[in-house]
Amino acid sequence: MKITGVKVYRVAPKSNYVKVETDEGICGWGEPVVEGRSRATAVAVKELGEQLIGMDPENIEDLFNVMYRGNFYQGGPVLCSAISGIEQALWDIKGKKYGVPVYQLIGGAAKEKQKVYAWIHGETPEELAADALNRLSEGYHYGKMCICNEMEWICNSARIDKAIAMFATVKEAVGDRMEIGIDFHGRVHKTVALTLMKKLEEFNPLFIEEPLLPFNEDDLVELKRHTHLPIATGERLFTRWDFKRLLKTGAVDIIQPDLSHAGGIWEVRKIAAMAECFDVTVAPHCPLGALAFSSCIHLDVATPNSFIQEQIVGVHNAVNGGGLEIEDRIETDDSQGYVSCDTYIKNEKGLFEFEDGYVKLPKNPGLGPIIDEERLAAANNGDLPLWQQPLYRMDDGTATQW
Questions:
Q1: One domain for residues 206 and 250
Q2: Are residues 34 and 137 in the same domain?
Q3: Are residues 57 and 9 in the same domain?
Q4: What is residue 318's predicted lDDT score, i.e. its pLDDT?
Q5: Domain containing residue 156
């Protein structure tokens, strides 16, 4: 079998799908994207794909090295995300060729089902509490929420108290029926992060995600010395080399590689194995579409130290047996909404089986989703909406972390 073509399609509002074609008629699909930079990532996919024409798609380890080591400039979000989507598509091809789900090709099932969590949305404590109760009614036992927006280097007490009230109100609403993690989203500087984490200890959140921006490992170590709360990070790290540095600090409890950013399925399986040696668990980052989510589930069920899976698939009705809904959350400075991208999945019904906050083992060959390429191509002939990252500014006008 030889690779004959690599095509990339934009998926509104912020994703891409890549198709890898072969001379035997078997094709594979993956999801390469950098949120807010989907067009740049699409160009990188095309350039990398040109290197693979005529090569055997089953030699995934070699093709990863061709794309990664075969280029003088390595790493970073755009190149690694382009590699990740192509790599997912190669596993999809291999699973389809042998008629088995991808997890069977990377060691087989290490568990019977995968725990998932849903995002809790809202701008006020009351909105967040209402959404948490809604998620609970849908069958979720785990969730995640943000409590921080624009945060100063040194915050006043009112802003800190408001952040604490966000979480306290939600926990009061759900009690011990739902465990909830908190995403600081890298918006908090080290002094404020420590203050927030100490005040949050009485509420015992499931974890604190990205308490600091990536590559501040020394400061993560200092945070870890002063709190018992689990620290999670890693969605903005790429390949095993970034995670090697992080794991050696001993400051992280949960790593969150993104299979559409960190190098793909096999690369994240290597990262997870390395984390296991450091007694660290894995909770893949995944605010994307069906192909990215499928890649994560196959990785999760084959990985004994995978803890929980982020997902925005079926957040409205699929957990307790409803149909599949795939949604992308659109965030702007003044509004929130959802844009559906499930129109490109032919086999949406029954693709993922949710039950009581878990996803059952995938059954379909390859990654699972069957893409409606005709509809996808038709959409790419028009003007697709483009998601752009919001710009946050402080009271004095300084641009700050979204």
A1: yes
A2: no
A3: yes
A4: 33
A5: 104-367
Catalytically annotated residue among 121, 141, 285, 298? 285
- The region, left, alpha or beta by phi > 0 then psi within -120 to 50, assigned to residue 314 is left
Kindly report whether the peptide bond that precedes residue 13 is cis, defined as omega within 30 degrees of 0. yes
- Same domain flag for 108 and 88: no
Question: Bridge-partner residues for 359, per DSSP?
Answer: 114, 354
262 falls within a domain:
yes
Q: Model pTM greater than 0.85?
A: yes
DSSP structure string for 258-296: BTTTSS-HHHHHHHHHHHHHTT-EE--B--S-HHHHHHH
| Rounded to 5°, angle at Cα 351 from 348 and 353 | 125
Does the annotation mark 141 as catalytic?
A: no
Name the H helices within 69-205. Answer: 77-98, 125-137, 157-174, 190-200
CA dist 189 and 152 (Å) reads 8
The CATH number of residue 28's host domain is 3.30.390.10
Given 141, 185, 189, 261, which residue is catalytic? 185
Phi-psi region of 27 (alpha: psi -120 to 50; beta: other; left: phi over 0): beta
Q: What is the DSSP string of 346-398?
A: TT-TTSS-EETTEEEPP-SSBTS--B-HHHHHHHTTS---------EE-TTS-
Q: What is the CATH number of the domain that holds 310?
A: 3.20.20.120
Catalytic status, residue 228: no
Per-run averaged pLDDT (10 residues), the chain, 402 residues: 96 89 98 91 96 98 96 91 98 98 97 94 92 92 90 81 94 96 91 94 96 89 94 96 95 97 98 98 93 96 97 46 36 32 73 89 95 90 76 80 74
Residues of the chain with pLDDT > 90, as a percent, come to 68
Looking at the DSSP assignment, which residues form a beta bridge with residue 19?
Answer: 7, 29
Q: Do residues 261 and 347 both lie within one domain?
A: yes
Characterize the bridge pairing of strands 179-183 and 15-22.
unpaired
Please check whether residues 294 and 162 belong to one and the same domain.
yes
The SS3 assignment for 4 reads strand
